[in-house]
Structure formats: C-alpha cells, structure tokens
Amino acid sequence: MTGFQNASYTSTCHYTLHPHTPENYLLRSFKPPEIDKHIRSTFFSGHLLPRFFFPFVSMAVKLSSCFMSHGWNCCSVNDCKHFSLRFYSSSSPRSLTVSCKTRQRSSSSQPRKPQSKKIVPSQVPQNDNFMPDDSGHSDSENTDEISNVSEKSISNDIVAIQRFDDRNSSSTLTSSIGADKGDGHSAVPLQDVIGMIRNAEKNIHILNQARIHALEDLEKILGEKEALQREINILEMRLAETDARIRVAAQDKVHVELLQDHLEKLRTEMSNRNRIPNEMQDIVLRAPDRQTRALSEELTALRNENMSLKDDLMSIKEQLNGVKRTDERVEMLEKERKVLEASLKEMEYKLTLSQDDGAQLSTLRSECETLWDKVEHLQVLLDKSTSQADQAILVLQQNQELRKKVERLEESLDNASIYKLSSEKLQQYNSLMQQKIKLLEERLERSDAEIHSYVQLYQDSVKEFQDTINNLKEESKKKASGKHVDMPWEFWSRLLLLVDAWFLEKKIHRDEAKLLREMTWRKDARIHDVYMECKDKNERDIIAAFRRLTSSSSSPGLHVIHIAAEMAPVAKVGGLGDVLSALSKALQRKGHLVEIVLPKYDCMQYESIQDLRVLDLVVESYFDGKLFKNKIWIGTVEGLPVYFIEPLHPAKLFWRGKTYGEPDDLKRFSFFSRAALELLHQAGKKPDIIHCHDWQTAFVAPLYWDLYAPKGLNSARICFTCHNFEYQGTAPASDVASCGLDVHHLNRPDRMQDHSSPDRLNPVKGAIVFSNIVTTVSPTYAEEVRTAQGGQGLHATLNAHAQKFVGILNGIDTDYWNPATDSFLKFQYNASDLEGKAENKKALQRLLGLSFSDSRRPLVGCITRLVPQKGVHLIRHAIYRSLELGGQFVLLGSSPVPNIRREFEEIARQFENHEHVRLILKYDEALSHSIYASSDMFIIPSIFEPCGLTQMIAMRYGAIPIARKTGGLNDSVFDVDDDTIPVQLRNGYTFVTPDEQGFNGAFDRAFNRFKSDNEGWQELINKVMNIDFSWDTSASQYEELYLQSVSRARAARRSAG
C-alpha cells in the first residue's frame, strides 16, 4: 500500500500579510475574476482549497535559491505531495492569517497514520475583520503608509512549507452562504475573501522584488564579463607581441648561425694564407664571440618571457572557463527571469480582469439576503398553503362521504320509480320500441346492400390477386434461367465496381451498365458463371461476354448511397465510422444495394482496402468559380463497395495527415460534398436513397435539390443523420457560397440562416430543412435536442420539422465485438463459460503492473475521450472512490483539451507505480478489447451522450455499466433496483444528477452487490451478455423509413404523371 492509501493528508495554506502594504492597498481596484471564481467554487461546493494558490507554491519552491541570496529564507519541500504554505512578514507587528484546506481522498480500508501537528504562532479567528481595526487607521492613513514601507521589511518575509494533519485542524470553511440567517453572520465573510486576494497581491509584490534582485545580479555578472573580456583582449595583444619577438629572435639566431659559418670560412682562408698577423686575428675572433654571446643572452631572455607568457595563457584559459560557467549561470538566471515575467504577466492579467467581478461581491451578498427574505416569505406562504390543503382534504373526505350517501339515495329512488310506472308510460314505451324496430329493419336493409358491395369488392380483389399470381408465375419463369448464387459480398461488390468502372471509362453504354448492375444486385448465377469463365481473359473479352447477357428483371431492393467523412476501419475518428460500416453491412444483408463515397485521405488504413485501384477518368467539379479535377479510386472494405475521391486541388485538401481539425475544414468538406454528387451524376446512378452524415456532408441536401435534381439526378430521397448536434459547422455566408450554393436564396431563418447571426449559415440546419428524412442516434436524444437546453439553437427548426425527425438507437457490430472470437484477447469466453474473463483480468493486471493477488477485488474500466461532455470531473472522482471502496481502476483515453490533458497527466504521474490504478492517456485498439474483457464494472458518467457505444460493448463482454440517465444511455442501461422497469430489462446502475453524490449512489450500490452477492452478480453478467445489441433492429427501422419515403415519392410521381 502507498502512503495515499494508508493515511489522509490535509493541505493547509496560511498567508500572513501586513494590512497596510502597497499591494494590499491596490485591492480596491484589482480583484482577480479567476480568484473570485475559485473562491466561490471553493466555498459553495465544499472543496476548500482554491486552485490559484498552487502556482504560488510552485514558484516559491523554484525560486528558493534566488531568494536566499537576497535575504529570503525558504525551506525545502522534502518531496511532500501534501503540504501547507505560509507567507508572513517577520517585521510586521500586525499580521493577519487566512487558512484554507483541502482534503485528499484516501482508502477507507486502510488505517490512518498519525502525523505531526503544525504549530501556528498566532491565528486570528475565521470571522475576524480584515479591514482597518479600531486603532484609527483609515484608508487615507493606509495610503500614507505606502511610501513608508521599506524594502528591508519586505525582504524579511519568509516562505515556510509544513506538513499538517487534517485531524488536528479544527478550522474549516463553511460551504454555504446564509445557512444560519438567525445569527446575523455570513458563513463566508466578504473580508475573508478580500484577505485571500490580498495574499495573492502580496505574493506578486514578493515576486517583483525577486525579479529586481535577479536583474541586479544579472547586471553585475554582465559587468564582470565585460571586465574579463577587456583583460582577455590585453593578454591577446601581449601574446601577439611576444610571438612577433620570438619570430625576430629566431631570425637573429639564423643570422648568427650564418655568421658562424662565414667565420669558419674566414678562419680557413686565414690559415691558408697566413697573411694576417695574430693580433688582428684575435681581434677578428673576439668580435663575433661578443656578438654571439649577446644574441644568446637575448634569446634566453626571450625564452623565459615566452614561458611566463605561457603561464599567463594557462591562467587566462582558466578564467575563460570561469567566464563560460558564468555565462551558463547568466542563461539560467535569464530563464528564471522569463518564468517570473510570465507568471507576473499572468497574475497582472488576472488582476486587471477582476474589477467588475470584485465589485459584484457586495451585490451578490445583498442579492443573497434578498433571496433569503423571499425564501422565508415563501416558507410562510407554504405553511399557510399546507394548512389550507389539510382543511381542503378534510372537506374533500366529507364531500366523498356525502356523495356516497347521495348515490345510495339515487339507487333507492331508481328502484322505487321502476315499480311506479303507470300503464300510460308502458304504452308510450311500446310505441317507442316499435319505432326502433322499424329503424333497425331499415338499417338491416342498408347493411345487406353494404355487405353485397363488400362481397363484390372481395371477388374483384380475388380476381386481381389471381392475376398478380399469374404475373408472378410468368416472371418466375423468366427468372428460371437466372439462379441465385450464394457468394461472399466481397465478390459482388468487386463485380459491381468493375461494371461502374467500365461505364465511367465509357467502355459500355448506360443501359448495359444498368442491366449488369441489376444482375449483380440479384446475385444472378449467369453473370457469376460468365465472370468465372472469363476472369483470366483480357478486359475486352470479358466485356464482350457480359454484353451477351440479355435477360433482365426488376430490382430486388433499394439502392442506398452513403456520403460520409468517416468509415471504420479505413478512416475512423469517432462513432460515426462504426455506425456507417455496421449499418451498411446490415442493409446489405437485407438484400439492398449499398455503396459508400469517402474522401481519399493520406492517413487512411490502406491495408483494410481490397482491390484498390484508380479509374481511367477524371471527374470535374465546381468550386470557387472554377472547375477542379478529381481522381476516382474504387475498392472494397469488408465486402462493401467504396468510392474514394481525391481532389486535384492546389490546397491538397485531404493530404493533411489527419481527418478533422484543419482551419479550412468547411472548404474541404463542402468541396467533397459537391464532388460526390458530381460523381453520382456522371456515373449515371439512380439511387433510391442518398444518406449523408453530420455537418461535413450536410451540404449534400441543399446541393442535391438546388443544383443536381434539375440536371436529372432526381431519383433519390435524402436522409440526414446528425450524430451530435454540438457540432454544426457554422460559417460566414461567403464561405458557404464557394461550393455553388445560392446564399442569398438560403440565408433566411426558415432555411440555412444560423440563429446566432444573420450573416452566418448553418449546414446542419440546411440539411434538416432540405432532407426528406432526419434522424439522430437515440430516441431520448431526439427528445432532448427538441428543447432549448439540448438543441444547441436548432430546437425550433427540429420542432418545425418534427414529422420527419426520429431517433433510432445505434447498434454495434456483434461480429467484431465478440468475446468468443475476439483475436485481441488471450482467452476467449462466452456467457455460459466465464472462466476466460477471469483469466483476461489477470493478464491485464500483469500487463499494467497491477496487483492480482485478490481475485475478488473489482476492476472498474473507463474508455473515453477526455472532454467536458464525458463528465471528466466524475471520472476523476471515480478513481479515488474506487480506491476508497477497495477496487482497482483502469482508464484508457486521450484529451484534445490542454488543461484537461495536463490534469490527467498529473494524475497519471501520481499513480505511475500504484498497484491498483493505471491511466493510459492514448487510444490503443488492442488494449481497449482487453479492458472491456477484464472489467467487472464500466463507468459512463456523461453530461450528455447522443447514443454511446461503450455501454453496449461493455455489456457484450460481461462488464456491468454504471451510467448517467441521458441520451442513448437512458435507452440502453436500466437500473437493477428500479421497480418501475420490467425485471428482464434491468441491466446496470444509473444516476440522474451529474455530481459526486449522484454518482456515488449508483457506484456504491454496484460495489456492495459485487462483494455481497456473488451469485446475483454472475446472473447479471449472463443477462447483459445475452442482450441483442446488433444492428438488425436498427437497420430494420432505417429500412422502414427508406421504404416509406420512397413509396411516397413514387406515389407523388404517379399522381403528377
């Protein structure tokens, strides 16, 4: 166990400030909004330590070495993760203290270790007044004292970091305002808040002083550096002079040697001639000797001077090394100075923004008092209403008793009236009965006539039915020559793409292509046989053989074309890719022709595409007033025929290394939408349904009806599915006009004009208006987006088109997500044999370095994108709550939000070597399968969730979901303890409010059942693993919508014709 599990730590931050320092005086005009925000979040939510204190702690630790050189004393952190921080002035006679605490969760299953107490020299009560006291100090006096505050008093401030045990601390901050109105005191005085803001300003002043000292040190170091540089220059000049003198001495030495040689020659001549007297010879000899000795002495002196210069050079080199070290120190100080400047700028920015928010504190307090008065008044009214309601209940009960008595009297009167009927009334009754009999006879005659007409209609229907049977028999005879062949869908998709390629390359005619498509669609045995006979021949022979096929028949189903930005597994970013692939395969299994059009990204998974090839044609599409060429690629993905469009545009629209997230995404996908429709038009396709998805292809709907239906591409009905209404792709009208849409015609509130601005267009709104079918990914989410809170500004448009808007719950690909055949798992298993699930749990624990000694310790899994929508605050809470309840926690996911990413990276470092927690901050497909298979529970605490697939996958692998009741989660997870839900549907644990208390209610119930009812937990696992989350049901609903829309269109065309 780590220290985190064994004990609970309390972090206490004490800031002791002089009340009349200049920085505290600035409080009247600078009140940081973020400080105010954290203060309110701290005191109103129960989290006692404001986050803005942490930068001061880290800065103090980093600058401790710098402060000590200028009279600042700082103790070390000693590797303590939970500490208290105090700033105080040793020279100030009047000091004030504000204490803030925060509690870190610890495991409830482990005993707490005692810790040392913190000794506080002086502590002012929590409700002390932080304004000037009764000693007579006024604001004007505070102003006068600003100039008298010396740098010495500031430089004596000390930063002290101490451990503190929250069990020994009795001072806590109350988290509600106005909780006890009768006492006349606010639980969180405004002065406490002002004191904490003053602390922040005090620390800013401290950092400014440190910055000044650092700059002074830097100036001194630079001056020393310049002096050393001057000495170096002088030494270099001396070195150059010495070198010159050495060169002169060397030349003189050479000259002496030459003279000696010449002297020898003279001696030889003199000896030979014997003409010079001995005295003259001695004179001649003595003269060169004296010159030689003088030169030798001078040379020796030069050598000695050279040695001294070498020593000087060595000392200079040592000084240069010192200078280099000084430069490194200067660079370090410069970096620290930049950090200080950045911190100061950030804090100055916060102070600048705080003016309005600080002024609102008093306003909020007065508003709170007013609201409290209203609450008291409402309480009085409620009491009165309650008493009146009690009286009304009594009166109602009395009325019910009277009503019963009246009913009994009426019954007795009815019985009495029966016996008092006179003979005259009986006669009248008989006459009335005779009239009724006549009326009945007339009705019987009319009924006979109607029955006769119905019989006639029935006979006509039987005749029509017989004629239909005869026609079907004749058609069956015609079809007898073409039998159905059961081949994989990959074969028929490849054949269909082959036919389309021939037509686009103008190798066959339109009618021939239509005929061959229909035969391929029906899986006709004749086209199969012809292809198998000719597949080894050249293309010309294959085309000739296909042209000889002349039989034809009607299409067996619908022709559906999906235009989308994603498709799993080749281009998957989110749930859209999974939905597109699974829905297309489900419709294909139902006998419909399904084709898909995608952009050709450079970052696709090309290994998942079979038979990928480029067609020998170029499709031109309009954009920005020009025609741009597009390459068309074809291939099959998991048996589905797919067209890939590669724009030959200078901006390289889809060669960016990623699918989304580019500044010109609107340009990229509006270009693709126009090019996709141009491909369908030039290919001569006549689809029944064009299905577009999300804002990236929402342009298809208005482009189809405004531009391509008049050109002849008018056979299709448009279906638009929005997978998340948070993303709408709004843009200026001028940007939308690039793809050829008439923005003047569309920029209206009832068409594409966005609700936020009259000069912006909304592609999603345009798709809702111009589509024949509009769907989203769950029934509950469809209800939520029709409200002002969930509709993201589109609720009015959705309500106006409610007759064509429906929510269909997504499914999952049960072939891919199958624990019995999953190749990513080390041990496969199913609902009847769960031994493999336990083995997978141990394997994951070994892989991640978690403890696996206790098999009954529950493992909680979470796989998600770390964004606010997913409830990251509840995910963070779940980590610590799992440890408190004696469980393990594994998180797999990444975040595009910088502050969330940094927060979870810090948590990951905190639990890097923990035996029960592991955070993997990336996405790993293989690891995700292992986590699903190993988890006992799975959390999905989303703030909103259009559909959600993780809860379905988790149940498929036997992990019990713990989810918030929103969107698709509300349609797929039903609480096991909810008596209003049928028992057979209960499959998990749910909560409503997106806070820690609501989450704990569901989370704790799941843990209690896991630990106390093993048999019941196993039965729950068996139940969830047998739930059918396949796409069959969802695809049937889409099929029904398609057929209804197509039938209405055909009926309208027949009536118009």
UniProtKB/TrEMBL annotation:
Query: Please, which domain of life does this record's source organism belong to?
Result: Eukaryota
Q: Name one GO molecular function term.
A: alpha-1,4-glucan glucosyltransferase (ADP-glucose donor) activity
Report the protein name in the record. Answer: starch synthase
Q: Which InterPro entries match?
A: Glyco_trans_1 (IPR001296), GS/SS (IPR011835), Starch_synth_cat_dom (IPR013534)
Which chemical reaction does it catalyze?
A: [(1->4)-alpha-D-glucosyl](n) + ADP-alpha-D-glucose = [(1->4)-alpha-D-glucosyl](n+1) + ADP + H(+)
The annotated pathway is: Glycan biosynthesis; starch biosynthesis
This entry's Enzyme Commission designation comes to 2.4.1.21
> Which GO BP terms sit in this record?
starch biosynthetic process
Domain Starch synthase catalytic, first and last residues per copy: 559-799
Organism annotation: Tagetes erecta (African marigold)
Coiled-coil residue windows: 211-245, 292-350, 392-475
Q: Kindly state which keywords UniProt assigns to this record, in alphabetical order.
A: Coiled coil, Glycosyltransferase, Starch biosynthesis, Transferase, Transit peptide
NCBIfam families hit by this protein: glgA, PRK00654.2-4
CDD domains, per database record: GT5_Glycogen_synthase_DULL1-like
Q: What class of enzyme is it?
A: transferase
User: What does the sequence similarity comment in the record state about its family?
Assistant: Belongs to the glycosyltransferase 1 family. Bacterial/plant glycogen synthase subfamily.
**Pfam families under this entry?**
Glyco_transf_5, Glycos_transf_1
Location of the Glycosyl transferase family domain: 854-1006
The region called Disordered is annotated at 99-149
